[in-house]
Input
Amino acid sequence: MTVVLSRHTAGDVIRYSELFPTVRALGISVERVAEVLTAMGVLIDDRRPSFEAWLKRKLDGLGDGIRAETEHWLRTLHQGGPRTKARKGGHRLGSHEQRPAHPPDLVTAL
Output
């Protein structure tokens, strides 16, 4: 905390993007330092969500018409919509759970 706050004066803010390299280089827990700075009211979390970077990569190169529709669909899957719930955090788009081909009762009966 001393290193991070050494140049801090009243009214200054610290951005997460500036904090991360400094704290990581010292081998200190970034999460804990960020927690304390947040409690002090001086941290601005300017990280970009990983979903946004993933979405940008996936949509890169698509034509405007299909890009807009695909982006809307993927955001609805991710965030939910009027008739759908958001996907749970542990799920990745494009991954599927493996299930048995037949219900267990049917397999037992055969």
Summary: The chain has six helices and two strands.
